[in-house]
Amino acid sequence: AQKVTQAQTEISVVEKEDVTLDCVYETRDTTYYLFWYKQPPSGELVFLIRRNSFDEQNEISGRYSWNFQKSTSSFNFTITASQVVDSAVYFCALSEAASNYQLIWGAGTKLIIKP
Amino acid sequence: DAMVIQNPRYQVTQFGKPVTLSCSQTLNHNVMYWYQQKSSQAPKLLFHYYDKDFNNEADTPDNFQSRRPNTSFCFLDIRSPGLGDAAMYLCATSRESSGQGFQPQHFGDGTRLSIL
Fold this sequence. Notes:
Chain A is an all-beta fold. Chain A is built from no helices and twelve strands.
């Protein structure tokens, strides 16, 4: 079974629309970390956020916001007023003690923002 | 700015000809990772160094080796590249220490390897 599931393979929206990328994870550890990374077409992986399992507060950074809900094992990412520069593949990842804290990656969601 | 630098950005080699990819960091992180990423897939961890300790993933082919001569540098050696080794290779670093948790991994821009 996948430990990190990003069910949306590809999402396409028009610029200025809001878009939410879903991430569902599975772990038995009580201490774990969740991450989002952005990979634009140029290829580099850009760290966006890390959240530990004890901090369920939602976070907002400019147009980006993250909703962490342990009850549903989800860590969803919303982009408000999307821009063409947001076009990229977005990866959600889990880090847990059972896996020696290595990153367990979701399959990624390709986000296309049309002008 | 502190960063993770990978050279070269693009590498072309011949089938079976050894190739070395390099990674350097100015972040003074104690952990360095090598990932392989194929098109439309998530990165796949090949191995990592925790300080000087080398940790190989169980399914990493023997064809892939790594060296870390000092804290700042790490190399990926592919002894006999096959067509299936064409991919993006990503280097990452992080700081891990007891009591401070596991810091996010910071990635270089990657080296795109092509095999002729």
